[in-house]
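hi support,

uploading two proteins for the ticket. first:
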Amino acid sequence: MTYYPPVSPYSVGMACKCPRCGQGALYDGFLKLDERCETCGLDYAKADSGDGPAVFVIFIAGFFAVALAFIARYVWYAPMWAAFAISAGSVIVLCLVLLRPLKATMIALQYVNTAAEGRLEE
């Protein structure tokens, strides 16, 4: 069995790399996971981040969008339509930028903590 030194789940998550070796790519497409790591061979079939990353992305993007809308409206004295356009554009950009690394971080944390589906004992 090959030894892989422990890597930080946050650093490999933000870099979108394999949670075991920290080298191979995690994604095949924008949000589609690769089948396995090309470096260490880790199977990504069990990796399931679910909707967890989307919740964090919505909270972060929503906070910045509201703050930006208030700044645009009450500091820059922009019209209402401009404040809406600025905040809507920022939400779209932030969601696209944050979703990929937060999903990878959630998968890395799942791997490091050997998280599995919760089940009641029978």
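and the second one:
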Amino acid sequence: MQHKPTLTTRLIATGCAFLLLAVLSIGLTLWVTWKLEGGAASINEAGRLRLYAVRMALALRDDDAARLHELSGKFDASMQLLRTGNPARPLFVPWSADVHTGFDALAAHWQHARADWADPQGGHAAVAAAGVADEFVVYVERFVNAMEVQISRWTAALHVFQIFMLGMAVVATIVFMVMSYFLVLAPLSRMQHALARVRQGDLATRVPVDSDDEFGQLAQYFNQMADALQSSHEELERKVREKTASVEERNQRLSALYAVSALVADAGDLQVLAQGFARIVREVAGADAAMVRWSDAANARYVLLAGDGLPPGFAEREQCLETGACVCSQPKAQARLSAVTVAAEGGTRLPHCHEFGFRSVISVPVRQHQQLLAQVTLLYRQEHRLTRDARELLETMAQHLANGIEGLRVSALEREAAVAEERGLIARELHDSIAQSLAFLKIQTELLQGAIAKGDDAARDRSVAELREGVRESYADVRELLVHFRTRTQDEDIEQALRSTLSKFELQSGLSAHLSMQGQGMPLAPDVQIQVLHVVQEALSNVRKHAQARVVRVSVQRHPCWRFEVSDDGRGFEPRTASPDSLHVGLGIMADRASRVGALLRVDSRPGEGTCVTLELPRKAVHTADPDRPGAETAPAAEETVPWKA
């Protein structure tokens, strides 16, 4: 491929051409000017020849040989100067054919005249001298006229050169302007417009390459830069799109996991949990339908718990499946996340899916501690392939479902254990209070029968009175137990519950009761409040039954730790020698209640000085315990519990 000259070469060549023309023009002008200056000097020198001719004619007339000889020498010197010229002056004869003819004629006439002047002829000398002078003037005039004509030519040539130089300057200016526009300004303008479009974000901008000069190379480099920028920008956009898609996918996964976690936290029973999970997993997986099947502990069958998007009649046919009947009921040992195509199974192992138009089935086992709890099935009407991320998401969601199922099971077991424990406590309180009263009534009944049989009216009346008092005590015990069993805390402050308890105590016993609250502190946990209220109620019950008091005071100290005191002004007793009656039973019940919340129970009493029951709670009994697990956070070791002391 033939390359065009570069811009530098063009500019240098054009500049050199114009420089050469300028140098030549200026040189010719200087040369012509020099010639004209020399021609003017030649004309002056030719004028001297006329002067010398006249002076020689006068010398010849005066017969002055010496003067004639001197002037002849000067005439010869002038002729020689005109013939050879003098560059130093400068003096040059503007030679031409006419100038040469005139000079040769003048020289020939000078030689002839000098020969005649050298031969004196007496009286003819003056006449000859006058004629010679006139002839010399004619020859000199011819010579001068010829030189003036030639000088006029050189002057005209000088004018032509000057006009040429002026035209060359105009042409050079136009040429440089045109070349500057086409070779510099136009490519530079295209480059500026291209850069402006790139700056505005149009990375597809390209500059046409229509030359091999520097601007052509610059255009190529610009296009390469634009290609690199566009490729980099497209690559960056691709990475941003991929990153955005990845972030969106992560957000969707996190949203799905958050939704499942919220469902697990809020679901109150297994049916609600399964139905909500089926809806969420169907939306996340983009399935046409979803099912959650529960498996029994022996993994003998799968029961449909919930479904979402199932066609009518499908749930009835899939209500219960034997283990291994299809991919929806995998055995425990073979259970794994699997995706199958209904057509590949031939419709034999998936008859209902094939019948209802499903083409892909994904089965996700739900495990917890090596126990297969359930199985999630996703149904698609088109063929569907699982990606690794989708597989991980489904497995994570299945694990959340397993945790939820296990949490419901543990909660049910905890509620059952709490109910059993409370029933045991109720049974103990019934046995320790009402059962003893009934035993006493049984003994009095036997005594009454004996008195009637013996006809002892006094013994009979005493037995009837004892029976009446026993029934009254039993009725009071029953009412007291009912109050205990119905005790609940409605808020975090125990003060209101204590005031309600003391109000009921005053109505039942007719005694005066006072409550004193001191200090500020963190509220008690609900389960701790219940146990504290039971201890206070049992202490008040003992006051009603045994103290024979007039006033009861309940004092509560909130800081630095919770402290409850129930004191009376009754008859008091000796704790170490207390008889195993209902008083002793009440002390045992209070000690048991205190141990459940890790509290310290102390009973201070002296005969005739009243009784003070003190319950001091540990610092961790404040509102940090789990209300659904009584005593789980607060129960201390057995050796830390002191039931009572004197």
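thanks. also noticed: The chain is about 60% helix and 10% strand.
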